[in-house]
């Protein structure tokens, strides 16, 4: 009986304590699996335009520019939790630096924008990325639901698709035709 009363007191204290925290002013706690608000996302490079492959997506940690989708664009679809993505993201940064005439962008295919921006910062990757919390990009284009995935566009139209991890800059350049 004493143990039952003690358990009720402990549970009541936890419930009241949790309710008290909910009533306190300030930033609400956010579960790890919830999308981050814009204020929580680290500042990132601006995206070149408001769309990629004709799909409107917000820019991850930056603003969206007004460029058209002319020329060659290489899109890396990735997620912050994907180990192969972590390994190949620096290759896309190297591709962008080696070929400034090619638009290189990422599409972060996960709802946790803060973790995506943090990963890019940790890796030192400066390629702008779009945020795709709802899988709108893959859905609109009928892409396979895998990451990493590389899409090559010419003037906004798909000309190549690679659902695989690239192991070197040379392999990536060859695949996209550079």
From TrEMBL:
Record-level GO cellular component terms: cell envelope
GO molecular function list: oxidoreductase activity
Principal subcellular localisation of the protein: other
Keyword vocabulary terms for this entry: Cytochrome c-type biogenesis, Disulfide bond, Redox-active center, Signal-anchor, Transmembrane
UniProt KW Cell membrane keyword: no
InterPro entries cross-referenced by the UniProt entry: Redoxin, Thioredoxin-like_sf, Thioredoxin_CS, Thioredoxin_domain, Thioredoxin_ResA/DsbE_sf
The organism's place on the tree of life at top rank: Bacteria
Cellular compartment(s): Cell envelope
Residue ranges annotated for the Thioredoxin domain, each copy included: 23-178
GO biological process: cytochrome complex assembly
Transmembrane annotation, as ranges: none
Alphabetized PANTHER family for the sequence: THIOL:DISULFIDE INTERCHANGE PROTEIN DSBE (PTHR42852)
Identification of the protein by name: TlpA family protein disulfide reductase
């Amino acid at each position: 009986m004493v143990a039952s009363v003690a358990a009720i007191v402990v549970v009541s204290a936890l419930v009241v304590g949790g309710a008290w925290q909910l009533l306190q002013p300030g930033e609400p706690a956010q579960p790890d699996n919830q999308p981050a608000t814009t204020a929580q996302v680290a500042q990132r490079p601006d995206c070149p335009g408001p769309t990629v492959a004709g799909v409107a997506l917000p820019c991850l940690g930056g603003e969206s520019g007004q460029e058209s989708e002319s020329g060659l664009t290489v899109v890396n679809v990735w997620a912050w939790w994907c180990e192969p993505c972590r390994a190949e993201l620096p290759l896309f940064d190297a591709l962008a630096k080696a070929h400034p005439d090619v638009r290189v962008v990422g599409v972060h295919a996960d709802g946790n924008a803060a973790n995506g921006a943090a990963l890019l910062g940790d890796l030192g990757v400066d390629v702008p990325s779009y945020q795709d919390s709802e899988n709108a990009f893959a859905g609109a284009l009928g892409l396979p639901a895998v990451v990493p995935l590389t899409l090559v566009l010419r003037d906004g139209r798909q000309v190549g698709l690679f659902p695989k991890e690239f192991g070197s800059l040379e392999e990536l350049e060859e695949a996209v035709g550079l």
